[in-house]
């Protein structure tokens, strides 16, 4: 697996591994010995693509057109790390080292403070991964530590191992241009996408890719439920090229390119904090 320092948690039938050095990523999660998340074969693989394994943090999530946005009269630039489309994608928070501030057998909390190295607004983020009797809880608290209002779009690129069934409460699909930037137009779901909403066995074997509004907050994959509470208000679905036996079910606060469109964008005042919560728990028929 990964050679960087790993925090191992166990309890209530769950086992987890967290990597503070890689954005506090919940890189492994198992229930009663059954692996639930896509895990890299080694650190080289993780270092190359940290956003496609485990539960990586995205800030800003997905694409920012041209790697630039204007907020309150000032234009800011992000690295063009998707050169084929000329966009910035996913931010670099998944690569940032966190400091563990609290740890027990069943929970771990990590802290990271951005002073401009991964986003042009200073902020602090605290992440807690916790195993409980009813499932797992994952808390992400971001605080604006700067003197100016901070535009905030946040998401998680959760990579699940493919299961025979998944259902995600998607609402409408965002139309996108040739660079995968939403045009602003919302479209009805296709029959295939309706199956993604109501329940599909097509986790792998064909390409799945789309940006959607959220019509609900609880998704299911196999025997696992995932609840992504408000302020998460968007879903992204993606399974690579469709042949790698995983699917990313990505809750996002703010639409793709929210820093430019403003759709779902949170504005944090100086000293203000926002907490995002995800819960994973067994599906009960």
TrEMBL record:
Protein origin, superkingdom: Bacteria
Gene Ontology molecular function terms on file: carbohydrate binding; isomerase activity
One Pfam family per UniProt: Aldose_epim
Residue ranges crossing the lipid bilayer per the database entry: none
Single Gene Ontology BP annotation: carbohydrate metabolic process
CDD domains registered for this protein in UniProt: Aldose_epim (cd01081)
InterPro entries in alphabetical order: Aldose_1/G6P_1-epimerase, Gal_mutarotase_sf_dom, GH-type_carb-bd
Name of the protein in question: Aldose 1-epimerase
Organism: Faecalibacterium taiwanense
Origin organism lineage: Bacteria, Bacillati, Bacillota, Clostridia, Eubacteriales
